[in-house]
Structure formats: C-alpha cells, structure tokens
C-alpha cells in the first residue's frame, strides 16, 4: 500500500540538510510519494526505515533509464491516469528501427534523419531519442557492425533487438557502457535474457503473447533480481495495443499490481505499411500511454507533430512554461539600441523576441521573472508591476550596456507607466504596442 507524503515524512531524519537535492525533508517526502525522487538520495535514512519505505514509496510505475550520461532517456514514473489529475512526468521515447539486413545507404539515411531532425521550440530541443538496432539476419557479425555504425555517428540511446540471447550478448560487447535496452525476454528465453540484463546492468524488455503471460514473465524476472523492465504486451493492432496500454496503466496505478508496474514499448512500425497511418497510431500511443514508440522511419512531417504532441501532453498543466529572467540581446544591440521589458511567460518571450528579430532592428529585451505568467495575468497577480520591474531594471545590468534611459513597456501594461516613472525617476517610460505583431513598425517609428 502506497504511503502519503506526510506518512513518509514522519519516517525521515528531519535534518533539512538539502543533500537529497531539495531543501527540506518534507519536500523530499512529497517527491518520494509521487515517484519524483529515489530513497537512496537521502544518505541518512537508516536501513530499517529504508526497508520499510522502499516498497511503500516505490512509484506504481517504476522509472527506467535507457542509455548513459546526460542523454539517457528516462521513462515510466507516472502516478496518474489522466494528465489533469496532476501531470505526466517522463515523456515517451521516440525511436526508429534499423535492421542489419538493410542497405548501407538506407542505414546512413536513417542515422542522418535521427541526428538532423531536431527542433528548437520554446527553449527546448525536441528530437527523437532512440535507435532500435534489430538483428534480422541472425548473423552476430552483421549485428555488431550495425551497432558500431549507428553508435559512431549518433548520440542515440540504443535498443538491441533479437530473439537470440547469443546475438544480444555479442552486441553488448561493443555497447554495454551505453546501457541499451535489451529486447526482449520471452516465455522460453527469459532466464538467458535476465542473465544478460543483470551481468551488463542493462534494462530489459519483456514480451508476452498477452497481458497475462507478460505479467507472469515480468514477475519471474523481478523475483530473479532484474529490476528495470519495459513491457510489450505483444499487441500489433492499434485497438489491441491501446486496450493493453490502458489495462497495464490501470493495473499498475489503481490495483498497485507490481508485475505490470513498468513503462511499456509499442511498435507502430509493425502495425501498418502506411506511414501516415503509422504516425496516427504513434500519436494515439503518445497520449495513452506508451513509454517507447518505435517508428519505421523519421520524417519531419510526421516527427515534428509527434514531438509537439508529446511536449504538450508532458508539460505540467499547473506550471506555466517560463523563460529565465535576464537580458536578451537581439540583432546585436549596442549602447543606443532600444530596451524593452516583458514577463517571463515562454510564449510571450518567444513571440516578442521573434518580432524584434524579424524587425531587423537591434534591441535589448529584459525578461522579468513573473512566475511564468503572461503580461496581463502577471500584472493582475502583482508579479509584473512597477515594484517588480524597477528593482529588476536597476539590478539586471542594463545600465552598463546602454547610454540612454528609455524603457519600452508592453502596451497591455500601460496602466503601470505612472508608478514606474516614480520608481525609475531617471528613466523615460515609453508605452509600446499592445500586440507583439506591431513591434517592428513601432521600433522603426521610434528610430525615426
Ligand atoms: Fe532530509 Fe535526508 Fe534530504 Fe537531508 S538528505 S533534507 S535529511 S531527506
């Protein structure tokens, strides 16, 4: 039975030392309860309490990492069925399948698509995460060569795919330090695959012909000490896959059924030959509830919408996306360039900075911390008012960068101009346009 954050807090050392990465034991307890922290992060928990808490505080869906270092993909760790109940934490990995029977040109093409299809959006880099290297030839030499080819030119986290544990073992010899996901332990091979996963400290995918078989194999593997599993229910139609994804998520969250308390993997690439249909299936599985989605190829027209869908679904609905407070230089401004100020709602920042950029006029954009709220909302919440803007302008360092004292405020914040003049008596406060799209014309008019 899962414990609440308060119940967990009662058992923590209450030193509030911050060594676990958050400032207080209470915050750590809340993170433990929601699966956002690992008990091992606190060095002061006694062995007795550790034992007591480890089962109770374990998230209902175990977080699993694939890959090593900063680029490792973390999936699972979810605690709610519906995003609006709280948030979803770990976006599903999107992968592309490459087989060792493919022509070299095709392999290189897929590898390039993986590296090149990256999109900068609201300050985040959106891209695919995984390359699935599949042994279709049954030849371990070809498999190893393909792993090398993929590994030498990309930073992809890998999935090694074969029914033959000997082939997987050969592949692991050249990439085990990258902690690939091994795919897949089945009813008649789980002991050998489990051994490989333990020896090489790699996560292991489990494939069942149906959910019952999947749970049975997963249970045997966890009993044998393999902790990091990824589940494949064997379904290869959209309807059955969707039903299984929902059944697995509900069993893990509502019934706390541990054998199914792991992230899942799904293969739209094996469900249809129509690429657009494959994309639609992937879109469905991003929403519910795949941990990894494997595509037959990566193409901008399908990957970009999938990445955006993933971004939207895995953005915390209770926390606006925010840009870091600071001075942003646009179009190489100098000491005479105009200074504009706005709030740190990401969308506001990107629209305003985009308009300044497209005006080709150099400018300094001051982005003030306002809890990620838009100008109007932040103003209503007293987060973007004269008393917050003035101290920011004084401290941010803009005065060392320009020799004028003219500050352009958003048209929607016109009502604070009087107070701002009092708070910044040396500055001329200029009311800018209400709509960002009018910024280029406004800047040109200001220049005269
Ligand atoms: Fe509390 Fe342990 Fe975190 Fe220190 S490391 S704040 S004792 S939970």
Can you describe this structure?
The protein has 16 helices and 17 strands. The protein has 448 residues and is of the alpha/beta class. The strands form 4 sheets. Strands 10-9-8-7-6-3-12-11 form an 8-stranded parallel β-sheet. The mean pLDDT is 94. Iron/sulfur cluster binds next to helix 2.
Q: What's the main sheet like?
A: 8 strands, parallel
- Give the N-to-C terminal Cα separation: 70 Å
Q: Helix count, per DSSP? A: 16
Mean pLDDT over all positions: 94
How many DSSP-defined strands?
17
Instruction: Order the strands across the largest sheet as they lie in space.
Output: 10-9-8-7-6-3-12-11
Q: Report the portion of residues in β strands.
A: 15-25%
Gyration radius, in Å? 26 Å
Poorly predicted regions are: none
Percent in helix: 25-40%
Using the alpha-carbon principal axes, give the shape: globular
Bound molecules: iron/sulfur cluster
Going by helix content, strand content and strand pairing, the class is alpha/beta
């Amino acid at each position: 039975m899962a414990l609440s954050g308060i119940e967990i807090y009662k058992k923590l050392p209450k030193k509030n030392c911050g060594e676990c990465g958050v400032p207080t034991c209470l915050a750590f307890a809340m993170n433990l309860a929601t699966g956002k922290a690992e008990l091992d992060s606190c060095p002061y928990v006694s062995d007795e309490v550790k034992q007591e808490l480890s089962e109770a505080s374990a998230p209902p869906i175990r977080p699993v990492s694939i890959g090593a270092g900063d680029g490792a993909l973390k999936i699972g760790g979810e605690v709610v069925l519906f995003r609006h109940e709280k948030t979803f934490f770990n976006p599903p990995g999107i992968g592309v399948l490459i087989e060792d029977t493919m022509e070299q040109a095709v392999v290189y093409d897929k590898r390039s698509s993986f590296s090149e299809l990256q999109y900068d959006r609201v300050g985040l880099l959106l891209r695919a995460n995984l390359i699935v290297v599949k042994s279709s030839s049954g030849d371990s030499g070809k498999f190893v060569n393909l792993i090398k080819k993929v590994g030498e030119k990309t930073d992809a986290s890998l999935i090694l795919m074969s029914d033959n544990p000997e082939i997987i073992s050969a592949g692991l010899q050249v990439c085990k330090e990258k902690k690939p996901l091994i795919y897949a332990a089945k009813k008649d091979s789980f002991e050998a695959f489990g051994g490989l996963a333990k020896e090489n400290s790699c996560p292991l995918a489990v494939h069942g012909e149906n959910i019952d078989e999947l749970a049975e194999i997963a249970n045997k593997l966890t009993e044998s000490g393999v902790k990091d599993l990824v589940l494949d229910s064997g379904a290869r139609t959209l309807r059955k896959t969707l039903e299984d994804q929902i059944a697995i998520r509900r069993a893990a969250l509502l019934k706390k059924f541990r054998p199914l308390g792991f992230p899942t993997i799904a293969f739209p690439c094996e469900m249809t030959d129509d690429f657009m249909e494959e994309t639609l299936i992937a879109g469905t599985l991003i929403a519910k509830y795949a941990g990894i989605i494997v595509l037959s190829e990566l193409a901008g027209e399908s990957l970009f919408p999938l990445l955006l869908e993933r971004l939207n679904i895995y953005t915390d609905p209770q926390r606006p996306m925010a840009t870091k407070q600071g001075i942003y230089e646009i179009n190489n401004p100098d000491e005479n360039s105009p200074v504009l100020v706005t709030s740190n709602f990401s969308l506001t920042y990107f629209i305003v900075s985009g308009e300044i950029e497209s005006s080709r006029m150099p400018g300094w954009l001051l982005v003030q911390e306002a809890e990620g709220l838009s100008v109007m909302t932040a103003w209503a919440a007293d987060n973007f008012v004269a008393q917050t803007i003035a101290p920011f302008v004084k401290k941010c360092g803009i005065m060392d960068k320009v020799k004028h004292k003219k500050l352009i405020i958003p048209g929607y914040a016109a009502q604070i101009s009087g107070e701002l003049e009092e708070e910044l008596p040396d500055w001329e406060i200029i009311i800018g346009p209400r709509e960002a799209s009018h910024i280029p014309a406004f800047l040109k008019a200001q220049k005269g």
